[in-house]
Specification:
Aspartate Aminotransferase, domain 1; 14 strands; Arc Repressor Mutant, subunit A; single chain; Aspartate Aminotransferase, domain 2; 8-stranded mixed sheet; 4-stranded antiparallel sheet; alpha/beta
Amino acid sequence: MTATARRRSRQPRAVLLDQITLDRRSKTPLQRQLYEGLRAAILAGWLKPGDKLPSSRALALELELGRNTVIAALEHLVAEGYVESRPGAGHAVAPALPEAPPEGSAPPTEAPAADRQLSRRGRRLSALQAGPDSAHPALFTPGVPALDLFPTDAWRRALARAARIWGTRLLTPSDPLGWPELRAAIAAYLGPARGLSCTPEQVMILGSARQAVALAAQLLADPGERAWLEEPGFIGARASLSGAGIEIVPVPVDQDGLDVAAGIARAPDARLAYVSPSHQYPLGTRLTLARRLALIDWASASGAWIIEDDYDGEFSLAGRPLTALAGLDRAHRVLYIGTFSKSLFPGLRLGYMVLPADLVPAFRSVRVMSDGHPPTLSQAALADFIASGAFTAHIRRMRRAYAERQTAMLVHAAAHTGGRLTVRPAAAGMHLTGLLPAGTDDVGLVRRLRLVGLYPGALSRYYFGPTTRPGLVMGFAASPPAAIAVGMQRLGDALENWTPEVVPTGP
C-alpha cells in the first residue's frame, strides 16, 4: 500500500493531526488557520463526504486551542457548506460540497475583505459569543426578568408624570453623569438596600454594565496591563476588557467565590479585578467575607482597582441581600456597577456606576467625549418610579416570585432529568446552573434544545481557558412555574433521546 493510500485509509482524527499546521507566530488568527486547514483537507479528499469530525472539545485538546476558536472555525465551515452540524452527533463533512476550485489548486489563503478590515483585536472580539441568541425571551434564557409581573401601569404613570413635570427640559441634554434626580434616588436607595453609602455626585448613569466595564478599563488601565476575570465568567466583561487592550488573567471560582489567593499567585501586579461577589455569574456562588476582605486588602496594597458587578444582587432568595463589596471598602478601590435591565426590564437600557470621589472628574470628561449623556425621559421616569416606592415594592414581589420559580425548576429538574443534570439551589439571582457529566458536549446539547424551544446557555462557553465544566445555564425568572414544568419535561426528553458525545478527560 502506498503512503497516500495508507493516509487515505486512516481515521479523520489522525488525518486532521497530519494536515493541520498551526503557526502561533503568524499574523493570521488561529481560527482562520484552523478553518483553512480543515477546508484544505476536505478539498484534497483526505476528509470525504459523510466523514465525522472529532468533537470541538477533542480538537481543542489535541491542537491546544481555546474551544471557542475551534467552534468558530467549524461554524464558518458550516456557513460555507463544507461541514454540516448534526444535532446530538457533532459535525461531519457535507455530503454535497459547494463549488470547489479545480483539483490540485490551493484553497484561498487571504481573508475576506471584511476580515482584512478588522484589527487583530476586532477579529478577537467578533469571535466572542455571549450566549443564547434568541431575539425574544424564550424558555430558560438566562438574564431575563419576570416581564409578565412588571407593573406596567405604575411605569406608564411615571412616564406621564415625568413628561408633565419636566416638559421641555427633557428635550435638552442632561448632565454627562446623568439626570440629577435619578442619581439622588439611586444614592438614597443603595444605603439601606446594599449597605453602600455614597453621594449623588459619585453616581454615573450608563447604558449597561458592559459600558461601565469598558469605561473603567479605558480610564484605569493601559493596553497590555492585566486584569483578573472570574473563570468561568461573564462574556460581556471579557469583551469589554479585551476591547480596551487588557490582558485577561482567568482566576478560578469555587464554592467560596473568586479564589483571591490564586489571583495573587497568577498576577499579583494586575491593574484590575472584575468580580460578581453577591451572585457569581454563571456558577451562582457568593464571595465569602474572608475573601472579600482579602480582595480589598490586595487592591489597597497593590494599587489595583476592583470592578464589582452587582447585576442581580437585589434578588436574595435566602434572607437579606449581602452588603455590597463597595460597602466594605474603606480604601476607595471599588467601582460598583448596578443595572435596571435585570431588576426592571432589559429594554430600559439603564445602569449605573458608583465611583470613588476622586475618579469622578476624569469619568465625567471621558463621558462628554464619548456619548455625551444618557437619554433623559427614561431617566426622569425612573427617578419618579424609585422615589414613589414602586421600585422597592417591585423588588419585594420579585423575590417572592423568583423563590417560587427557582423551586419549580429544582423540583421538575429532579423529576424529569433522571440524574443526568445536577441542579443545585442558589441563594440569589435569576438563574440556576446544572452540571452535566464530565466531557459532555454541552454546546451540542444546547443546539439540540433550541429545536424544542429551550434557550439555556452552554456553561463551557463561559470559560476563558481550556479547562471547562460542561453544563447548562438556565434562566427561571421569566417563566411561570407551569411553563418551567413543561420546559423541564422537554429537557428531560431531549437528554433521554440524545447520545452525548463525550470526550475523554484523562490520558
